[in-house]
Amino acid sequence: MTDGRCPVPHAAAPHRLDPTGAAQHAVNDRLRARGAAVPILLPGEVSAYAITRHEELKEFVTHPDVAKNARHFAALRNGDIPPGWPLATFATVQGMTTADGADHRRLRSLVTRAFTPRRVEAMRPAVEELTESLLDGLERAAADAPDGVADLRRHLALPLPMGVICRLLGVDAEYQDRLHEVSNEIVSTRTGPERVVAANREMVAILGQVAAARLASPGDDLTSALIAAREENGDRLSESELIGTLLLMIVAGHETTLSLITNAVRALCNHRDQLELVLSRAGDAEAQGPAWGDVVEETLRWDAPVSYFPFRYPTRDLEVGDTVIPGGAPVLVSYTSAGRDERAHGEDADRFDITRAAATRHLSFGHGAHYCLGAPLARMEATIALERLFARFPGLTVAVPDEELVPHPSFVGNSPVALPVRLG
What we know:
The chain is of the alpha+beta class. It is 50% helix and 10% strand.
């Protein structure tokens, strides 16, 4: 990466990202072959760039001349972004994901206490209890269905992380279903302009009610702690930063983990040899071989739950590979593409292999100052969910051919909208 002060046009036309999220890995293969940084078109004909390769992604996200604050987003600053743009929230929400420098450190420090190793480990019994309860519900749903098929995403992969993050934030159960529905609309890249505006307003309204409830009745939860920090020192956390932080925690705290669990189950069912490897070790503490944690890491690499994540902005013209990204251009980093980069993961990077020694080298939780705070919690939830699921239902299979699974309509998220399974 060098100082590209004399930009040259990229030889090929920009790739238009499909807002339906279809065939993401095939698209990634083609873009990665074009280069480490590829010009793309986003919905609304907004020009952007995608970083597609592992090493260049690592370097780009830690480069001192790459920012997260949307004041560096030239098209937004110039008023060239259409109203109701489906990706606007990713650029304009006020929180850790759009802050730089001291602001980022301030906001991150307020949330860090909720994700210390001790706090995360203290949540293990609750995660285990909720997992067993949800597996009971999954079994009942399959028994009640005429064809014995139940949606694993609906009955396990979604309610587990949503229940955990809402407990962590002190969100009452009455809000959980609607928060997921609105979160889905915000993450989707197919949401129409009017609905984008309405979804964001509804999310802000719900989170305002959550904050008001915790202000009236504080508890041992992160929202109460954030409010207390704001009350103690008025300039510590603004109202918009509080709402933005809650929005980030709700969306990132469940959307990514539900996709991780869904993608891991799908991968294991399509690679029964890998499932047998990990099941053969289960129950034998002295056995050698891959464990459930290895399944989680390889899924994160091979089928990352977050695909093209918005946004970063070079503060000056910056050369990535053989492409010069102009200062102020919005950039998306592709974790799904980097996870299958042959340069980083070998010629068999497109193969799901839970014995892969370098699986933990993936970047699916980010890299550098913006590395995901919730990674330890997500890993714990996914590991417990997979271990308990296959302990009870080792013969579980996906009930439809893989090519019939419909992707969630987004190039930001990466998982099917449903995962119908037979418990076996």
